[in-house]
Amino acid sequence: MTTPPAWAPATPENHIDDPRARRFAASHPERPVPTREFVDTAPICLSPSSGLEELWRAIVPETRTRANDLHLPIVTAYATRLCDAYPEADREVVLVATALHDTGWAHVDESRIISEGFRGDWRKAAIRFEHEREGCRVARRVLPDLGYDDAFVERVCDIVDGHDTRHVAFSLEDALVRDSDRLWRFDRAGIAMSCSWFGMDPATYVDRLEEEILPELITDAAHQMAWADLARCRDLLRTEIIR
Ligand SMILES: [Fe+2]
Ligand SMILES: [Fe+2]
C-alpha cells in the first residue's frame, strides 16, 4: 500500500447552472452554510438515530451488500445530528433519503463494486450511476406501502439520484444527505471500511480526508463534526507515527 490510488477531483461545474443548484446557491450564499444551533461533535456512537423502524425492516435485504448494514445506520445518525443543526430542513425527507441512498448497491453486479466503484476514476464509474438509479427504484418500491405520497417519494428520489455523481447540492435537504454520507468516512468504522475498499493505509487515508473530502462538506456543522472526528481518529490510530 505504498502508492495510494488517485481520486478524481469532484466536478461541480457539471451541474452548477442547473436551476435547482442556482436556487440553493442563492438561498444559501454563505459557505460553509452556517448554523446558530448547537453542533454535537461527540463520537457518533453516542447518538444513534431512532425511528423509521418500518423503513429499516423493509430494506434489510439491501443492507447486506457493501457493508450497508454499517454504512446506512451510521450515515443516518450523522444526518439526525445535521437535522438538529439545521431545523429548517425537512427532517423526514433527509432521514428517509439517507436511509435509502445506497440501497441500490444491492441491485448492481456485486463483482464490479470494488473493481469499478473504488478504483481509478471511481467518481465517474458507470456502476455509481447504476447504484443511484437502483436506489430510486428501491425508494419507489418500498415507500408507498409505508404511507408516503408520490410527492414525498419524488423528493427522496431527487436526492438519491446523483448523490455520488453530481457534485453540487440542489437543496438544503440534499446538502445534509451529502454531508452525512461524507461524514461517515471520518468515523473510525468508516475509516476501517474505506481503507480496505480504497486500498489505503489509515495515515494516508485520513490525510486525504482532510485535504480532499473535508473541503467538499457544504455545511459548517459538518465541518465541525469532521474536524472533531479527524482529530480523535488520528490520536486513536497513532497516525503521526504509524505511517
Ligand atoms: Fe452512494
Ligand atoms: Fe453512501
TrEMBL record:
HD domain location: 75-183
Name the UniProt record assigns to this protein: HD domain-containing protein
Organism: Corynebacterium suedekumii
Source organism phylogeny: Bacteria, Bacillati, Actinomycetota, Actinomycetes, Mycobacteriales
